[in-house]
Amino acid sequence: MFKKFDAYLVGYYGMQNSGDDALMYATAWAARHLLECDKTKVGLYGDHERETQSDYQLSLAFNQKYLGQNRLLHYKTALQSKRIIFGGGSVLHSKTDINLKRQLMSLSSPKKSLAVGVGIGPFTSIAAEKSCAKFLNECGYVGVRDALSLDIAQSIAPNANVKKTFDLAPLLLCSKKYKPQHVKRKGIALTLCSVAINAMGKIDKNAEQQRIEQFTQLITQLYQKTGESITLIELNGHNSLGDWKINNNIIAKLSKKIPVTIKKYEQNPIALLEHLGGYKAILSMRLHGAILGYLAGTPVLSVNYHSKCQGWCSEIGMHEDYQIDLFNIDIENIISQITQGLSTSFIRPALSIDNAIKNSLANWSTQNEKYKLYRHYSTI
After folding, report:
1. CATH 3.40.50.1400 fits 188-350, yes or no
2. Hey, is 98 helix, strand or coil?
3. What is the C-alpha to C-alpha distance for residues 43 and 59, in angstroms, rounded to an integer?
4. 312 contacts 146 by C-beta, under 8 angstroms
5. DSSP-assigned letter for residue 362
6. Which of 220, 284, 311, 349 has the maximal Cβ count within 10 Å?
7. What's the DSSP call for residue 348?
């Protein structure tokens, strides 16, 4: 069968989430520049009027006109593609989603397909774990972004072609579109989100209210101690699931004397990366808030609510004082770390950005070590 596309790029793309946007850009860039795919197509949900760095877009609907509409579109594109590339994210945890990925590979070419920069688990069921084992054995190559994912993969599919690699986001720095503004840094940014923590996987309203109170106190004291303006950055702009919920609740509780602003969701991850380079420090619950802040050369304190956040801190060698347990927040300690960093200097992660890029390139091929990296990042 004639294959119209060199690759079909699949992920949680178009969901108005800055982390997934970054993974989409990085995947499309690498498919073109590293795998030399001349024609790629990316599946994109929701808002389709955006730059993806891919050649073609498949419009996927949030509100389907009929049951299975998106699935049929996936199938058609998979049949037209030489390979499937699953580009980044925590995409291997649910049975239904994993089985769809297996079906797409079977319609294209399983042995030519890739899953790169992905996280594995935690699984939603035993059936999901079994489906993941089948996926790992069928997919031609899987690059996992953290050590925990590698341990899981080796446990459930010991003979699969799975390698420890890295997150894809550092490849944004290879794009010639990345042109950071070397401006004087000012202010402190926070990227916050709601967390599903009860047994039903939904927001625990009591815990969320307590969290809002904690961050309200933190922001108040942080401003009083540093005098720096505060920005709440929305990395998820979804109408119902977005960061605006927790941010608006915090704003409502804060004194009007405290200069706090909200930066709305930015759909271009390179523009967001450039923006993050203008702050003196970032306190981030969002995983890719921490990742993009690191790539922008901005000091980051990571508020960890999930193993993926802890995995990232471990990968880059983030100082232990900058790793905050969401469920045991010590406001005084956070303020102490930030004020000390602002007055003297922050402790840099052990992993250099150059090495982060090399690790990210390992998702694609060791042959690309000769690739001339194009990047420039600001320092504090």
Report:
1. no
2. helix
3. 6
4. yes
5. T
6. 284
7. P
Q: Please give the structure tokens belonging to residue 67.
A: 């049951």
**Residue count (the chain):** 380
∠ CA 343-297-191, rounded to 5°: 85
In angstroms, what CA-CA distances link 259 with 172, 188, 232, 339? 31, 11, 11, 18
Q: What is the pLDDT of residues 124-169, one digit of tens each?
A: 999 999 999 999 999 999 999 999 999 999 999 999 999 999 999 9
Q: Residue type at 14?
A: G
Residue 207's pLDDT band, with cuts at 50, 70 and 90, is: confident
Per the rule left: phi > 0, alpha: psi between -120 and 50, beta: everything else, 157 is beta
Whole-prediction pTM value? 0.93
- Side by side, the strands of the sheet bearing 188-191 are 260-263, 230-233, 188-191, 281-284, 300-304, 323-325
263's CB contacts (< 8 A; 6+ apart) are 189, 231, 232, 233, 234, 275
Cis peptide before 122 (omega within 30 of 0): yes
The amino acid at residue 349 is P
- Show the tokens assigned to 318: 């983030």
Residue 204 pLDDT level (bands cut at 50, 70, 90): confident
First-to-last alpha carbon distance for the chain, in angstroms, is: 54
